[in-house]
Amino acid sequence: MTFAIGDFVAVLDDVVKGTITDIDETYIFIKDETEMVFRYLPSELVKVDTNQYDLTKYSDINNHYLQDKISEKPKKRVSKFSKTKNEIVFEVDLHINQLVKSTNRLDNYDMLTIQLETAKSKLEYAIQKRISKIIFIHGVGEGVLKSELEYLFKKYPVKYYDASYQKYGLGATEVYIFQNPN
Fold this sequence. Notes:
alpha+beta
């Protein structure tokens, strides 16, 4: 993409937008609305032709992208609960892209923390609602999340083991919760 001085651009992995003030061999310098000047590589920028505030769903009712979205059938919601042999099984997908919209500003520690907090809250929910089985789908990876989950499970009255290889492959752990008959 070619840029010129005066173009209005946005930074791909940041919330900075502004006007190009200078271009050298390597960098493009942009000035934002607060008059601060930033330096970026051309690969980090994208031209913005229309101000985002001017784009509304009513701006072009004949827009074919909008018509495609409107005519699109809604996806069937897949229940997180499944029932087998009169037993309720609660499935929790811990893949990070299922838990957050974007991982741009998250490092590995932040992602692991989000996954573990989700697992902890779902486990406590299942204990409270007297659900006896949970399947935590964590993926294979390097095994960090799986080992952290095992450490978490040791703090609760549960028994855990690898889930069905046939159904989940190697990346899932099944947790059985011991319930007091009250």
